[in-house]
Write a structure and sequence with these properties.
By secondary structure, the chain is α/β, with parallel strands linked by helices. The protein is built from 11 helices and 13 strands. The protein has 2 domains: 210 residues, Lambda Exonuclease, Chain A; 74 residues, no CATH class. Helix content is 38%, strand content 26%.
Length: 296
């Protein structure tokens, strides 16, 4: 991938963006890889030489890497920082780097740092559950220890004190501890095996793109449709609802002079439309979605 420096940032910062911090060791797959859709992984591999991003887009990744380096230097009793564990599953070596382990007499609590937005934190993040539960099984398999809990240490990069005071559902501090439900061991084992097989099959039986397994709505971060009550001449919505019924009820209360109407905001695969995957322009599934939108 080519990394640009469009805003003329200092050379040391640009050098940091070009440095590779992550390594999965001698494993075939990392936990991060297997929870990612095979389509994205394969397209990134194929188009790596064509992909381009700016150093400014990598800023939070750089900060995250710096946090890991600092935390490695923090030594506190009953805590283990930055440990990579590797195990073999059906002939495949799987590894994962666990940020923090709190070690107590009745078991280990696994924690992972995540830089995220306030909006993302207020919505479900299934990949957090996947990752943490696989880490939990690594600890159980490799270290033979009981896992008593899973947590995310969420760093809210766009936190606003004003919003926190106004909305009780908004994160109340820029750092939040998020509890992750602990899956049954048998369910987790089956999930890991399915994910490994899915990625292994995509390498062996599929060449590229059309033959790759399509991303699911969950993979694509599909955002549900919304119904916005608006007034003519006003740019912003009066209110946005999850259902047409709720929007229609509010619309009925508006004075006729306001010339209100309902704007339907269609379901949107946010990961694709915002190119968070980095390969949407080469993805046949997303290109088909764009054509469908044009036809509608």
């Amino acid at each position: 991938m080519k990394i640009t420096n469009k805003f003329g940032l200092p050379a040391p910062l640009y050098a940091l963006a070009n440095k590779q911090y992550y390594s999965k060791g001698d494993a075939d797959y990392s936990v991060t890889e297997i929870i990612s859709p095979p389509r994205i992984q394969r397209l990134r591999k194929k188009h790596d030489h064509e992909m381009e991003t700016d150093v400014t887009d990598l800023w939070w990744s750089i900060v995250g890497s710096a946090l890991h380096v600092v935390m490695e230097r923090s030594v506190v009793d009953n805590y283990k920082n930055e440990e990579r564990l590797t195990t073999e599953i059906n002939g495949v070596r799987l590894s994962g780097a666990i940020d923090v382990q709190q070690i107590e007499s009745d078991g280990i609590t696994i924690m992972d740092y995540k830089f995220t937005s306030a909006w993302a934190l207020m919505n479900e993040k299934p990949e957090w559950s996947m990752q943490q539960n696989i880490y939990g099984r690594l600890v159980q398999k490799v270290k033979g220890e009981n896992v008593k809990g899973l947590k995310i240490i969420a760093v809210v990069r766009d936190w606003s004190r004003r919003e926190a005071e106004r909305k009780p559902t908004y994160p109340q501090a820029p750092l939040q501890m998020v509890d992750i439900p602990l899956w049954e061991e048998s369910f987790t084992d089956q999930f890991i095996e399915r994910r490994i097989e899915l990625h292994r099959d995509s390498k062996v039986s599929a060449d590229w793109d059309d033959e790759l397994p399509p991303c699911t709505d969950e993979d694509r971060w599909m955002r549900d449709p919304k119904f916005a009550v608006k007034k003519e001449g006003r740019k912003t919505a009066v209110r946005v609802f999850d259902t047409m019924t709720e929007a229609s009820e509010l619309l009925a209360t508006l004075p006729a002079k306001d010339k209100g109407f309902i704007e339907i905001r269609k379901a949107e695969p946010v990961r694709c439309t915002q190119d968070y995957c980095g390969v949407s322009k080469w993805c046949s599934q997303y290109q088909s979605y764009l054509k469908e939108q044009e036809n509608e």
